[in-house]
Amino acid sequence: MTTATRRGPRGRAVAPFLVLLLLAACSQSSQDTSRVAEESPAPTSPAPSPSIDPAEFVDEIDNPYLPLAPGTGHHFDGICPTGPASLVTEVTQDREEIMGVSTLVVRERRTCEGEPVAEVRQFYAQDEGGNVWYFGRDAGGGDASWRAGTDGAQPGVVMLAEPMVGEIYQQEFVPGVAEDEGQVISMSEDLTISLGQFSEVLKIRESSRLDPGVVTEKYYAKELGLIRSQRVEGGNNNLELAEISGVD
Q: What distance, in Å, lies between the first and last C-alpha atoms of the chain?
């Protein structure tokens, strides 16, 4: 599968899902794309539930900006509101069926000041066009847990196959619980972290209609994935990739 062919599966699952959000963004301003990209996403009405056809999903997640190869681990260091923080992710071999789609399970462990604050199982799948979808999370029960197709929860796109500056898209929608959106800000960032220097980095701005005072910017390097997460509004909550395991 090549990047050039990474589009919505047969034009059904993704295109209608994104069009309303794009139209909402365009209606706010007729000015140039650079200005749109630098503005925080404005609240929009929820997009209609995307049409999910399990036959249009593949087993491997190899989107260049979010590759999820089983056996791969990432360790992030940073700060939380009260001190040092860390995030450890593990792409497992486990799979769970949600809405008829075989999703890949990614485990996450977060700490703040050395104390565990969250252990979560996240569910991802990639469609045949290359878009990576988010189907829910298991946080040990409670309001933080949800699965697409249950209690009004909708899957969202966590990484587009072909990001374009200015695009706004729904990442997850659980009424009153999680209503997150992403906006493509740049595809040409230069970023230096402890692991090295990266160019042509993808910058995504994330926000939620439920908590408009919190905005996070995330940076993705090709063939590696997330390398930095930075809270730009709503307090300190920053992470930077420090170590990778399971990579040849």
A: 21
